[in-house]
Amino acid sequence: MISSDFLVVGGGIIGLTVAKKLKESFHGSRVVLLEKEPICGLHASGRNSGVLHAGFYYSANSLKARFSREGNRLMTQYCLDKNLRINKCGKLVVAKNENELSRLNDLLERGKANQVDLKKISKYETKEIEPRAKTFEYALFSPTTSSIDPNEAMGALKDDALKEGVEIHLSTEYVKREGKEILTNVGRFGYDFFVNAAGLYADKIALDFGFSKNYRILPFKGLYLYSNEMPGKLNAHIYPVPDPLYPFLGVHFTITVDGRLKIGPTAIPAFWREQYSGFENFEFKELAEITFRQFGLLAFSKFDFKKLAFEELKKYSKNRMTQLASELVSGVHSKQFTWGKAGIRAQLINLNKRTLEMDFVLEGDDSSLHILNAVSPGFTCAFPMADYVCDHIKKNANI
């Protein structure tokens, strides 16, 4: 058995930054990280859009608002310090009609409350930033929104964690908890404090510790269409005004770190946790559980899950995706785009309230902490999230 002071499960962006921060914060401690895949970041972190969000979407009292602005600054500085690529293109949020202007103003007020650099600009000024952008009367511009390569960042963070003494065990899958030990497919790991950063499986692991009783992960598939246009055809990310009833930002234009253009993502209900393509990673038990959960939401959810599911399923059509995208940008044609690889959003639902959780959710005690909901902008928020986890451990752990 391998013993540790801190045992972290999950080698995505949150798991790596938490393990790295634990090693820095608790000098001389043994920090062990377990990742079930042969490489770190194979799932949500490596399939991330790469957008570093500014933090103006979220209510001021939320963890997302608290972490986003600082996370943007810290991840930007990390990429600069490590000579990683970064595209400081900024973001435009555009309105399609008069009805959306009030929600645009709400975003502006949230930006002010969160102390985010966010500007209200005229249609003329919008065209100066991006001539192809469409907006009704005015738009918002976020100059600190940018793009990075998430896999480059993940590689650098893994190298740093290893150099600082974090022990990373790949192809090591959590099986179950037995007291103060974790049984895996390759042996046992003991711990004084356990951190669950397992993403799509965070709820299942938390249940072994007596947590996540009122929560379950509901997976949503995110697909992007990549343009075959030459890089540099847009100057900024272009987003629609989000629907406040859902934690998804709608189909938008993203510029990659190398200037390529893509539209998406979808938020299509998935039927098992790693349903990236066809019957890949098929799990019958997950299919039964998640389908049951989805039928429950169709009948009893506090939001219109039926409408959400119907609208998202239509986005399997490339024509539908490009039609929505053409409401934001001129010169969009279906033949310009091809599908890219899918990602899965590990969205938490509240079983009692029958709602989607809009903020980060963590539960724990004096020997474990479980990061149950670390969806977008989780990548942006990774560094302050790690600080938050370490602060919790310092205050609550018996170590």
Features:
3 domains, alpha+beta, 399 residues, FAD/NAD(P)-binding domain
Structural account:
Helix 1 runs parallel beside helix 5 (150-163) and helix 2 packs across helix 10. By secondary structure, the protein is of the alpha+beta class. The protein has 3 domains: 1-86 and 146-214 and 359-399, 3-Layer(bba) Sandwich (FAD/NAD(P)-binding domain); 91-143, no CATH class; 215-351, 2-Layer Sandwich (D-Amino Acid Oxidase, Chain A, domain 2). It has helices spanning 13-25, 63-81, 101-113, 123-129, 150-163, 202-208, 284-300, 305-313, 318-325, 382-396, and strands at 6-9, 31-34, 51-52, 86-87, 91-94, 119-122, 138-142, 146-148, 167-169, 174-178, 181-184, 187-190, 193-196, 215-222, 225-227, 237-240, 252-255, 261-264, 268-269, 337-339, 343-350, 355-356, 361-364, 368-373. The model has no long low-confidence stretch (mean pLDDT 95). Helices cover 31% and strands 24% of the residues. It has a 6-stranded mixed β-sheet, sandwiched between helices. A hairpin with a 3-residue loop joins strand 23 and strand 24. The chain contains 10 helices and 24 strands.
What are the segments in which pLDDT stays under 50 over at least 5 consecutive residues? none
Kindly provide the radius of gyration, computed on alpha-carbon positions and rounded to a whole number of angstroms. Answer: 21 Å
Q: Kindly report the name of the CATH homologous superfamily of the largest domain.
A: FAD/NAD(P)-binding domain
End-to-end span in angstroms?
Answer: 20 Å
Q: Considering DSSP H and I runs of 4 or more, what fraction of the residues is helical? A: 25-40%
Secondary structure tally, helices = 10
- Major sheet strand order: 9-2-1-13-24-23
CATH topology call of the largest domain = FAD/NAD(P)-binding domain
Main pleated sheet: 6 strands, mixed
Q: How many distinct domains?
A: 3
